[in-house]
Amino acid sequence: MAGAHPSQEGREFIVEADASAAYWRHRPDNTLPPPDMMGAYMRNRPVPDRRVEGRKAWIIGSGIAGLAAAFYMIRDGGMKGEDITILDALTVEGGSLDGAGNPEDGYIIRGGREMNWNYDNLWDMFQDVQALELPEGYSVLDEYRLVNDRDPNYSKARLMHRQGQIRDFSRFGLSKSQQWELIRLLLKRKEDLDDITIEQYFSPGFLETNFWFLWRSMFAFENWQSLLEMKLYMHRFLDAIDGLTDMSALVFPKYNQYDSFVRPLVSHLQSHGVTVRFGVRAYDLTMSVDGETRTVTGIRTRTDGKDEVIPVEAEDVVFALTGSMTEGTAYGDMDRAPVLERGRHDPGEDSDWTLWKNLAEKSPVFGKPAKFYGDTEKSMWESVTLTCEPSPLVERLRELAVNDPYSGRTVTGGIITFTDSNWVLSVTCNRQPHFPGQPRDVLVLWAYALLMDRDGNHVRKPMPACTGREILSELCYHLGIADQCEAVAAKTKVRLALMPYITAMFMPRAAGDRPHVVPKGCTNLGLMGQFVETSNDIIFTMDSSIRTARVAVYTLLDLPKQVPDISPVQYDIRNLLKAARALNNNEPFPGERLLHRLLGRTYYAHILPPLPDLEGPPRGSAQLEMKHLLSKRRHALNLISASFEQIRGHIRSQK
């Protein structure tokens, strides 16, 4: 089993916890907290021993997963930084967590990072990483809390339509049958959802609701992608459902993702002696195979066109990224549309997918990468970075913003999505400045769209065929300032990034398509990132990438330390109650008034959502609801009884 190894007492120790696997209770042979609890008691550090002395670590990829692997080997594994080497085909750390540019040429970011408070692995790491702009001893977590506690996030224009009108986004707009579609999905077993798409499960009307516009634009889901992944997201973010409409459940970094996270983490690792080698593409691993056991013996690399094999000893450890969501990005600008150089069904040999492809050819335990990279038409979307001087666009932004865009506080509070956009276009302005050193009169905005095969509403072209100037014109149209587009363009620089694999990890999948973090039989290889199998976690978050690295480190270094399952918010009765209210369009859900009747004068009264004013007496309303629920119960019992009679008759007929 991946993530498991014998403990010093001879019992199997499970590194990757799975809270959904079995009933947990206190007993003499279990000293661990519940498997999904993260707290101070989980902050223990194993005492370093001889298991790390003389061992080397090789990390392929300097994205957040690779950097986290180095961090945990040092902090929890006791490994020396000088024994850790990171290899990357790029020329800068961070992988998909990018952020670059200047006001003259325009800034560029391919994405942003929205989070909530229970990203347990991310905060576990960054509470031990020094913040770059605070005095010594204050962490990135300290800085994050300082920013967000003083400046709460919310949106007042989350959905828009009709060329600049704010659409009512206060409710999800789900009918009772559509609410049941979601509830049934939450109740389904994960194992029953292999290769099923979202549009195969939900009714067509569901995919036109406020809920789906809010959900798909925030998390970047397409209708044809994995229903299983949507289910996992529902569990992971159940505590945030009631803040999905106005985005009050989210917290954002001070700057862009590169300056907020990558720079301080890289500085931390460099201070411990970690080496990063750029321009090195690792494309295959040599292995010795003994039955079902596989041990990495070498890393095949290519640097400046020259091949090299880096030798790996049996006691060394290798951590590798499988796949890449930003591989093959095509760039454009104000007057140039991006041109993809990757094939629709195969990324070619000189890509970040090559290593995984070569591993998969060695054994089924390494998964099926073609399930994810095999159709870029279904995994591609485009992002747009706008560098803006004062213009009619900025003035329109003032009207939609929570605070003045130049105040340094929350601006749009997350993306604004245009629900009648043929592209499903969204735009956001985060706190400014978005880059250190950014001029005070410059704003950096980010936009993206989900549908790449439809003509725009104003510009009659698909988005990938458009220049930055044309995309800016489409944005101005949806903001209701199409007649001022030329004035906006004169004060705006646009940089484009078309990413063929940006949601490849959401493609429909089945058991075995993704490898485990430590594949079966591997003695010194851990796989990380967005394309590996975990118990209950999701993908497309920094926290999930960090978690995969953490599982790999603890397993390969044989550390008696557990990586908790996702936060247990999905089991919290308070979250279940407020989620039920939110899904019911903020109205009392069936049975809620009865709960108030039963618990209203008890210690647990505070867990119930406040009831709206009643037109009749409370007692009468509760009694009517009880009568309604009992009638439903009788109907359900009659159906169950009829089913048992059918089964009994079938059994008799077989005799």
UniProtKB/TrEMBL annotation:
Gene3D superfamilies: FAD/NAD(P)-binding domain. Keywords: Lyase. Its EC number is 4.2.1.53. One of its GO terms (molecular function) is oleate hydratase activity. InterPro entries: FAD/NAD-bd_sf, Oleate_hydratase. The keyword RNA-binding does not apply. It comes from the Bacteria. Pfam families: MCRA (PF06100). PANTHER family: 67 KDA MYOSIN-CROSS-REACTIVE ANTIGEN FAMILY PROTEIN (AFU_ORTHOLOGUE AFUA_5G09970), MYOSIN-CROSSREACTIVE PROTEIN. This is Oleate hydratase. It comes from Methylorubrum rhodesianum. The lineage of its organism: Bacteria, Pseudomonadati, Pseudomonadota, Alphaproteobacteria, Hyphomicrobiales.
